[in-house]
Each structure stands twice: as C-alpha cells, then as structure tokens.
Design brief:
The structure is a homodimer. Chain A is an alpha/beta fold. The first copy, chain A, is built from 21 helices and 19 strands. In chain A, the strands form four sheets. A six-stranded parallel beta sheet of chain A has the order 3-2-4-5-7-6, sandwiched between helices. Chain A has a six-stranded parallel beta sheet with strand order 15-14-16-17-19-18, with helices on both faces. In chain A, strand 2, helix 2 (33-41) and strand 3 (46-49) form a beta-alpha-beta unit. Chain A is globular and about 75 Å long.
C-alpha cells in the first residue's frame, strides 16, 4: 500500500495499528497531511472528518466512550490543537483513552514568525498521562528503534487500568505530500510487565473483622455497563446492612438499590444517626449529587474505601481510609468470599422504605400537572422513551432533572461528568451514535449548552440513529434550581445566560428536520410521535415556562419531603 | 456602591480600575459570580456578555485590538477556561494585552471529584506573560498588601512595551453571592522604574557607517495605524537606496512603497543580485507573505536589524544581526538624523518600476473576466468598499487574496495573523465593531472559517455597523492555491474541508438579514447594493466556482510574471 515517505509517520501508524487503535478523527489541515495520507491508505483504520477541532475531540471522546477502546485525533499545527483542550480535560477526568496526534513545525521554526505556529510541546501536560515529542529526522536503525520504543511506551498507557489521554506531538518538515510504497512494518510493542502479586492482601485479611456488624453504603459513580460487577454487587447487597446508592450514570440498576440520591436525601433527616454509615465503599467515576458529598462530609463514616485504579488519591468525602487499586468486580468478589455477621438492623430497608414512598407518589404528583415546565417535560419524556436505547444527557439542569426519576431498565445513561462542562455534549453524543449505529440514541440538552456546541451539527454523515430533544427555558435554568442568587439584579445577565435564541432554526440551517412544542396540550402526543423510530424528525425543541420551572421543582421536593 | 463581600475580589476590581482596564467580557457561570457582581456595580467598567468562551476570548481580543488598551475576560471554573486558549495564543503572538480572570474552586477541592474542576493554575503558562494564583483567604493587612502587590506586578505587564496576555486564577469559596457596601479602595500600583538610558547607543554610533552605500529593505509586518511612524518612514524612504515593503495589515500606505509582496516577487528574478538587499530592517508583527521569507532566507542580507520590543529573539529570516528593543518611530527618527551616502543605484526604483506595471495591468486583466471566481470577487469587492471603513480579513485564502491588490487609502486592515488560525476571526471582528461603533466594519471570510466561528453570531447586541461577506467556495480553497497536494485522492477529504453547507441559512437562524449571489451577472450590482450603508442586510454569501478558482489565480500570476 501507499504511505507517507516519512518514516516517523509510518512508525506512528504501525504502532497505532499494533496497539489496536481503529478509529481516527481528522480535522482538515496541511501540516498533518502525511498522517492523513498514511492512515487513510491503511485499511485497518476507519477515518472520520470533523472540521471544528473542539467538536472533533468531543466526537472522538464519544467514539471511545461507546467502543470502550482508545481513539485517535489528528490535527494541523497552531491553535487547531488548543481547541482540543476542553475534551482532553473531560477525557482525563473520565479516564477515557484518547490519542492526540498533533502535527507541528520543526522545532527551529517555533517562535520564528511562521504562521499557525505555537508552543505545542507538552501544552496539555496537566491533563494527559503522557506527552512526547517526535520529529521526522528518523532514518538510522537506532533512531527508528528509539522512536518505536518512545511511542510504544506512550501507547502502553491505554493498557493500564487507569486510562486517559496521551499526546504525541510530531514535528514535520516540508515537503508534506510525498508518498512511497510501504515496504516495512515498524510495529513494536513493549513487553508486558504483569504484576500479579496481590498488593491488597493486607486489606482483605482485615476487612472481615471491620465489616462485622456495620452499616455499609456502596456509592456508585459514573461507569459503563458491567455485567460481572452487576452480579457481584447484587450478591453483596443481599446483606441487609448494605445500602447501594447509584445514579443513572452508574448504569447499575437493581430493585434493591436506591437510584435517586438527591430525592432520598430530601426525604430523610441527615442528622438522624440511624441513616448514617459506618463504612463507605465508593466505586466508579464522578457522582452527580452534590447533596451526598455534603452528607458524607458532615456525617463522616469511620471507613471510606475507594475502589478502582483511577485517581487513587481522590478524597471526595474527606474521610478516605484505604484506596484499593483493583477493579470493583474483583473487589466485591473478594468481599463476597468473606463471612461477616450482619447486625440486626435492616439498614438498607430503612432507606428503601422512604424511597418507595416517593417513587409511588411521583405519577400522582406529576401526571396531574398541566403547565409546560421542565419537570413535567422530563417526567413525560422519560416515560415515553423506547426500550433498549442510549440516553445522553447534557450538563447543567438536564442531568440533574434526570436524576429525579428512577432510571429505566434497558436504557444506558451517558453524560460528560468528568468536568461537567456545557461545551461538548452534542459532539460527544454524535460520536457515540456513529460508533454504535444499531442502537437508537437520544440526547437531551438545554438550549444554552446546545447552541454552544451547535457545530456538532456540521459533522457528516450526521447519524440517523440519533434524536435530539432541546428543552428551551430561555437560558441557564440551572441557576434557578441550585442554591444561589435570589433577587440579585445581576442574576439574569451574568448567571443565567438569558437569551431568546430559537434552537430549531439553527438545527434546520444545518439540515436537520425539526419539530417544536410550546403548548402543554400537545406535549404528550407530539413527544410520543417524535420519539417513535419511524418518525424521521431529528430534533424536538420544547419551550418551557422559565418563571414556573423553579416553583414546580420546589413544590415537587416539598411534597416528597412530607412523605 | 455594592460589591462582593470577598476582599480579594474587591482588590482585583480596584486594581483593574487603577490600571485603566475599562472593558470586561463575562461568560455566565456561578463560581465567577463575585467578580460579576463587583465589576457590574462599579460604573468605571463596561461589561459585555458572551456565552461561548471561545468566542468571548476572541471578542475581547477584538475590543483590545480596536481600543489599543487591555481588556479583561472572566469565566467560571472548569473547561470554560480552556475554551479561551485559542484566543490567548493569538493574543500572545500579536502582543495584545488581555487579562484573564478565571474563577476557581479552593485548592483543597481540586482533583477531589467536584464538578467543573480542572487544574487551572498556570494552565496557559506557555502563552501568557505572567500567571498568578490568588485565593479569598485574604483578611489581615499583610495578606491584603501581598495580594495588592502580586496583582499590581501582574498588571504592570500591560505598561511594558511588549504586551500580551496575563492570567489571574482566583480561588473562591462558597458562599459566592454575598454583597457588602464598598468601604475602602484597595488600588495600589507599583512604582514605575523608568529606565531612560539608551541601550542602543553603540548600535546607532556604528549604523551610519554600515548604511553607507547599501541597498536597504524595510519590511513591515502587521501593526496598528501609527502616524509618527508614517512620517519618519516616509522621510527615511526618500533615500532611493531604501525599499519599503508593506502589507495591507501593516496599515502604512505610501505611493513610494510596495504593497503587494507576493505579487512583486512573482515578477522579479529572485536570483538576480540587483534585487537582493544588503540590509534588512524589519518592523511590526507577522508578515503574511511566505515568499518573502524564502527570498531573504535564500539571499541573506549581510545585516538584519529587528526593531521593536516584541519577541526580540525571533529570527524569521535566519540572518538576525541586531535586535533593537525600541519602537519603530524612534528608530527611524534616529536613522533620519544620521547622514549616510546613497549609492548610485536607484534600488527602490528598480522594484517600483515592476510594481507599477502590474498595478496598471490589473484592471485590464480582471475587469474582463466573466466567471464567478474568488479572484474576481475580491477584485470587485475591494473596488466597491466605501472609504474610511475597517476591513477585517479571515485567515486562509481571504487574507492572501487581499494581498494581491494595493490597499485602499483610508481603509484600515485587520486580521488574526498572530497564529493565523481559522477559529475566531468572526468573534474578533464583532468585538472590534462593538468597540468602535462609529465606523463601518466589513468582514470577509471563507465559509469554513465562518461556520467554525458561527457562535460569534450569538453575541448580543450584534453590531449594526458590521457587514459580513462570506466567499463560499465549498471548502478550504487555500489548498488549491498553495503549493501542495496535486492529484492526491485524499485532497478533497482531508486537506480541503469540502462540504456543501450554506452559510446564509445559519446566519438567518441567528437573526441576521442575508443576501446571496451565485450568478456573475448580478455580482457588481448586488455587491454595490449590499455594501451601501443604507442597505440593512448584514451578510452576503457569494458562491464561487471551486474548480475555476485555481485556474484563474494561476493565469493571473502568469500574466503578471510576463510584464
């Protein structure tokens, strides 16, 4: 096959293939042409093209999230690269493997007045696992070997339990477009140093005694679906001393668990010691609920065991006692082998009892509402979602509203909760939908976040298996539902992002077929119709009543509280 | 007046006022609320609101470019900040003073699982002049004094001859919305250490002898209009040994100078030593022409004097002999006081003669064309622009096409040539138009760059004194006019950014009034009509013939070459 005449480019491509990278997202440019040529000619890779680098990086994140494998990004030199940064930070905090391949000018031309030239080397240092710089002056066997090993070491991060973004900056001299027939394979991986000794032996030998007679909370953060974990945790939670708190983004559903953390914390008296835990076991990534952080920070459990390879030093609840760098399914497998006595309390039952009251009451509270508010829309929307789909939630109020309702069996929940930014949720979803074309994907967004990332609609081909619902509450509804500015005159200007931009016209400009609801009476029918797979509309804009939204939400919480 | 109850916020605001910052661009958020409240209440500041932080930073750059003063930016914590980076890099390479005020969580919550939290401290380190981190635990007199001095030192960068971006990261604890009556002014500036001794004494004492009998080129990069420089350079160039090469972005027009560098280099034989210079004096920022870099790098002048405070070590032509950190007007004032003999050659006349031939020929070549190509559109467009306006040029092919025609007297030319990215030209222009509402601003962009930054159209109020012309050649025409891929099958996919997105529908979705031309016969009338101030259309989309564009351009260069 044809390839670039630059040996360094051939090494990069061969190493990517060797390390099982299959998807690469390009943004058009000139300096990265040798990489585009070489990847394009190699049939092992599927290439995608996204113009706006900010979208491209979130799109790659969506591919990686869905495929659960490392995905590569490639752009030209200059500020193009900097546009990747928001998604790189998100990938870093979600431990998602992204390979950033940035084309650069040769070092002697940096800061010498050439166009599209910045200091790219190590520019993402704070938020990548490894960052290396390569150049195309690689010819001798020694130079080739050195480059192979450098790249193999960088790519080996993707085989670690703790994954994340890796940056390869590649300095390329002109001419850029020359090709040769590929004559050699430069793939070379490092030997796997498997460390099989169990570093947690001491921990498990003491755990049995500690678990005895204790009230235990397992708090689950964001994670992909995980069948083994599901089974082990189900068994562990058969013990009535064990309360499992999950969020929809944990993708762990079970009748025994509590799925709506903020809702239950609103119902219980946090100062009542019978609710407080002796042991907190935390697994997974970010937790959406702010209240649970406050709960554990004020009523600190005696032990907090953090389980998982990622961010082992993270002490979210300010009471970390052990950090166990093993995966959660192995952890619970080991706990399930221990024999520790339950105490006489039905700790999980105490919580669950309250939870069931709220869950049962919700249809009654919400089905009689007749006003087009955010809360109502989410209730009906979630009720109408078809089975076996993937639901992508934008940040700010969307992800919080969705937490108020028990997650739907068969549905997977995704959201950019690494950094919780409003900047790339649409592009991430488009990437995920492209990666997994056989399932329907639904995306719910507020209109501010949606317009922010409207260039996601510029991606081609635009996935047919994606339907977008935009709740337009005229700007930043989040500030009406979190604790914050009450009557401040600055509220609407600086905190809420108020504006009157219609979203569907923007989507139409990018070629999407849209529908719009601004009348409560039409909500149920129009929504059901839109969500139907046969309907080929791609975006539904729902205008909710900005002033009524917080009133409805507070009244909901108040009703629940009294149960 | 009211202000935030946080003393550190009061100090920041007072120091900004003391250091003459008048404009501040906010993006909505919660963590930056104390700053929003305090700046908003103080009548010394004009506040702007831009939702998308990438646009916000370019918008601030446009304000600063136009006002020639430091402008502040303020956003919430997390990835919001990272979206500033492309504009910060542009500001860094154009030496434009921007103050970045990023709100952050308190340090003990970084990497502890809180939302919208990344490692903000020093995150822009490579591309800012100073970066400091502050927190709100400032109460004692000593703590106050230390904060005052730290901030004063950071802001003093804006008084330096070499300006650029400065980053203040401010850690703020909750509660965020409390206010107090302002009781004290915390402004405090550092003593000015003026260093009046002339460090260039040795240089000027030798310059007279060196200049004797030499062929001298003054090459002018990007700079704002500068009356004093205009006068001094006019006098210096009376010497016929002196050739002045300017670009439209130099904003230095004079009948004696050569204004179209690529055009003239296409006409002369670069190997003919009579054209080669003995001394190169370079002033200003970036130079658009790539050919002039090649010209001087291959036929190196004996001396290259770089003049100006910015990037003193930059050696663009690989022959730097002296770097003089004084401003260009003072430099030429001093040269004008020297007496050095001309040689007998009319060096500038040799070049100018060729230049006049091309200039005279252009109307003849282009007025008879009847096809809607980029070149034709630029010719007619520049002919129809009204006097006394400001022309903003997007990057890639637009800025290069505009260099082919002598700049128009009374028009100022602006472009993001610091990093030459396609990412923020529209937002920059919107900022400039807002800053200077009494002049008409015109913005020419390709459609890829325009869609990239379409969130610029979301800025409110949208300036009424701005008209946008988008040349839609269906994607990245730049790769058809620069040396590059000839018949590569990857060309259209990876290098050219081909797409068929209509631009005017997007602009309309954001509320702009648009017009469209896709027929050559209508070009002149429709364009004249659109450019008329009375016409209230805001965007004109012109569809040019992608295949014909490079043919037209090469034929133009060939005709000029033979003159």
């Amino acid at each position: 096959m044809l390839t670039s005449d630059k040996i360094i480019v051939q090494i990069v491509v061969d190493q990517c293939e060797k390390h099982k990278i299959k998807h690469i997202v390009f943004s058009p440019g000139s300096r990265n042409a040798p990489l585009a040529i070489a990847f394009d000619e190699n049939k092992a890779f599927t290439t995608h093209l996204v113009h706006d680098e900010r979208c491209a990086a979130f799109f790659a994140l969506g591919l990686s999230q869905e495929l659960e494998e490392a995905v590569a990004l490639c752009c030209t030199s200059g500020t193009a690269l900097l546009n990747y940064y928001p998604a790189i930070a998100e990938a870093y905090y979600r431990s998602i493997p992204l390979l950033i391949l940035s084309a650069d000018r040769p070092e002697h031309l940096i800061n010498q007045g050439d166009g599209q030239t910045i200091m790219q080397k190590d520019v993402f240092n704070k938020h990548v696992h490894t960052s290396i710089s390569l150049n195309d002056q690689v010819h001798s066997e020694n130079e080739i070997m050195e480059a192979q090993l450098q790249i193999a070491a960088a790519l080996s991060v993707f085989a670690n339990a703790w994954k994340g973004p890796v940056h390869l900056n590649i300095e390329l001299e002109e001419p850029l477009y020359n090709t040769v027939l590929k004559a050699k394979n430069y793939a070379k991986s490092l030997e796997n140093k498997k460390d099989d000794k169990d570093q947690n032996f001491a921990f498990f030998s003491q755990a049995e005694a500690i678990l005895e007679n204790k009230k235990i909370v397992v708090l689950c953060g964001q994670m992909p679906k995980n069948d083994r974990l599901e089974r082990e945790l189900d068994q562990f939670s058969d013990n009535t001393n064990v309360l499992v708190l999950v969020e929809n983004t944990s993708n762990l559903q079970n009748q025994k668990y509590i799925h709506c953390i903020d809702r239950i914390l609103n119902q219980i008296d946090e100062n009542d010691s019978s609710y407080q835990a002796d042991i907190l076991i935390s697994i997974g990534g970010a937790v959406v609920s702010k209240k649970i952080k406050t709960f554990f920070r004020s009523a600190k459990p005696k032990f907090h065991w953090r389980v998982g390879a990622e961010f082992p030093k993270m002490d979210t609840y300010q009471c970390l006692s052990s950090s166990l760098e093993i995966n959660a399914e192995d952890f619970f497998l080991k706990l399930n082998q221990l024999k520790f006595k339950k105490n006489s309390l039905n700790y999980s039952g105490l919580w669950k009892q309250k939870d069931i009251l709220a869950k049962d009451k919700i249809p009654e509270i919400l089905s009689e509402k007749t006003s087009l508010t955010d809360l109502c829309v989410f209730y009906h929307l979630l009720n109408h979602l078809p089975d076996n789909c993937i639901l992508h939630m934008a940040n700010s109020s969307v992800v919080r509203y969705c937490q108020l309702f028990d997650p739907i069996q068969t549905i997977r929940y995704e959201s950019n909760r690494g950094t919780s930014g409003i900047d790339g949720s649409t592009s991430t979803t488009v990437g995920a939908a492209i990666a997994n074309p056989n399932q329907m994907h639904f995306f719910i967004s507020g209109e501010t976040s949606f317009i922010y990332d409207s260039n996601a609609l510029w991606i081609r081909p635009f996935p047919k298996n994606l339907k977008i619902i935009v709740i337009n509450n005229s700007g930043g509804g989040i500030f009406r539902i979190i604790k914050g500015p009450d009557n401040s005159k600055q509220r609407s200007r600086y905190f809420e992002a108020q504006h009157s931009q219609k979203v569907s016209t923007i989507a139409e400009a990018f070629g999407l077929k849209t529908e719009c609801i601004s009348d409560f009476k039409k909500l149920k029918n129009s929504m059901a119709d839109f969500l139907n797979k046969q309907n080929n509309s791609q975006l539904l804009e729902i205008h909710t009543k900005a002033e009524q939204n917080p009133i409805d939400l507070y009244s909901f919480f108040n009703t629940i509280k009294k149960l």
